[in-house]
Amino acid sequence: MENTKELILVHADMKQVSQEYNNGVNIMLTPQFYTTKREEIPVKYSYQAKRIVPSLFDGLLENTEEYKYFVEKEDEEWLCIAYNPEEIKTILEQKGILPEQVSKIYFAEQAAGQFIHPVLLGDKEALVNLGGTMTIVPQIALNSDEKPMQITQDFTPKKGVAFEGRGKSFISTNEAYTLAAIFALFAVIYFVEGSRYGGDGAAEEAEMQTLLENYPSLQSSYTRKSIASKYKAIDTKERKKRDVIKSLSHMIFKGSKLSSLSMDDKRFKAQFSCKDASVTSKLKELAKKEKFNTSKIANSNDLKIEGTL
Amino acid sequence: MMQLKAYKNELIVGLAFLLLIIAFSYKQIQVSNQNNASSGAATSLQELKDVIALKKIWGDKKISKKVDKLKTLVSPSKIKWQRQGKKLTVSFQGLSAQEFNRLMIKVMNLPVEIQKLEVHNTGSVYQVEFKCKW
Questions:
Q1: Does ipTM surpass 0.85 in this model?
Q2: pTM of whole model > 0.80?
Q3: Buried-most residue among A200, A209, A258, B35 (CB within 10 A)?
């Protein structure tokens, strides 16, 4: 797809481009914008070569941190190119080509074999293949019988480079891939965690089945409800009675004695004989805490405690 | 198309973030579904356990035997026992404080419906009338 796009040779003396490349354009750079080295590097893959390449340009480049490197395997050697993307962007903008319109950037060095004739660069200079290396020479140095040629789309090499984020991007490609990897990792974790949840209370269901097998009479929910309502009422009422008896038993202490107790299904009544008024008062307090009704028996310290169930 | 390409990096990050949001939402939905399913199943299970527990206490077939043990707490001369099926009317006369306490603890732990409980204390002697059914 990329190779069907127009290929423009960009050089320093190039005139301003008036055309807008809305569908993108490929550019080929002259050696004015890059530095080349061909070296035999004992590696197999380009990613390995890329690690070594910066050291090959030691001392050749200024501000090396601004440079990026392109490597391509040729017959025996590796073609190593150092280029400054910011410098290239500036030049392109000066020539009227917006960086975001550029699909791929190629280097003339990649297509050296196709430059069988000089390519004129403006009025003074020409791009020629000198012993396999692309070189800018003055046009007066060209042989008069040598016919210049134009580059065509056929010059488009297979491999090229692209501007990171095509100029307008707020984040670099590396940052984008790092962030995307982090987000994707968390997404995978959430998916895995999510798939672990989503149970449907299977453990509870299994326990329920076991219980129902042991109590077959409770299989029917109607029976369960009926039994529950019957026994719950009894349970509540009888627990209340026993709680009352327990509370009353706590009211028996030194000086306080149970004289009588009467309890039926609806109410209870108890009478305590107290040694003196202070015991009566303490007993009254205890009864009040339990929300029982109290009444003092006339002409004695005895106390009547009653309540409903 | 060119504009989209210009913001390729932002698009990659945006899509990855969207994936993260979808994954997070998926997890939250799964957690919520499980909680709902579990709480529904847990409620049913608890209800069943409650019914079983209630039936074990109040529907126990050995209650009659347990009730009969009241007779063994004090000397037979102090007891007037009258049991008809699952109904009991009993009166205890001349109980000491110790016997009275023992009887009350037993009565409180019996899974029966107390219909009537009368206690009278005269000096150091207790009289108890007890009516229950089960």
A1: no
A2: no
A3: A258
Q: Tell if the CB–CB gap between B114 and A173 is shorter than 8 Å.
A: no
The pLDDT of residue A300 is above 70: yes
Domain A2-157 has CATH 3.30.450: no
Are B37 and A200 contacting, i.e. CB atoms less than 8 angstroms apart?
yes
- Chain A residues lying within 8 Å of B113, measured CB to CB: 234, 237-238, 265
Q: Are strands A7-10 and A25-29 parallel, antiparallel or unpaired?
A: parallel
Give yes or no for A224 touching B (CB within 8 A): yes
CATH number belonging to the domain at A244-308, selected among 3.50.50.60, 3.40.50.300, 3.30.1360.100, 3.30.160.270? 3.30.1360.100
Mean pLDDT within A48-76: 87
Contact call for A227 and B7, based on CB within 8 A: no
pLDDT number for residue A2: 45
Chain A residue whose CA is closest to B129: A262
pLDDT in tens, A267-297: 999 999 999 999 999 999 999 999 999 999 9
> Quick one: angle between helices A221-249 and B97-109, nearest 10?
160
Lowest mean pLDDT among A14-28, A121-135, A264-278: A14-28
pLDDT of residue A246: 94
User: Between chains, do B27 and A170 touch, taking CB under 8 Å as contact?
Assistant: no
At residue A146, the pLDDT reads 82
Residue B110's pLDDT is 93
Out of B114, B115, B121, name the one closest to residue A260 (CB). Answer: B121
With CA atoms as reference, the chain B residue closest to A266 would be: B115
3-state secondary structure at position A39: strand
Q: Are A270 and A256 in contact (CB under 8 A)?
A: no
**Chain A residues lying within 8 Å of B5, measured CB to CB:** 24, 100, 166
Q: For residue B8, give the chain A residue with the closest CA.
A: A165
Residue B91 φ then ψ, to 5°: -130, 140
Please name which of A230, A258, A232 lies closest in space to residue A245, comparing C-alpha atoms.
A258
Q: Does A101 touch chain B (CB under 8 A)?
A: yes
pLDDT, one tens digit per residue, over A213-242 is 888 888 888 888 888 898 999 999 999 999
Structural domain harbouring B40 = 2-58
Question: Can you state the percent helix, strand and coil of chain B, rounding each to 5?
Answer: 60, 25, 15
The ranges assigned to domains in chain A are: 2-157, 202-234, 244-308
Contact B42/A204 with Cβ under 8 angstroms?
Answer: yes
Number of Cβ pairs closer than 8 Å across A and B? 189
Chain B closest CA to A217's CA: distance in Å? 10
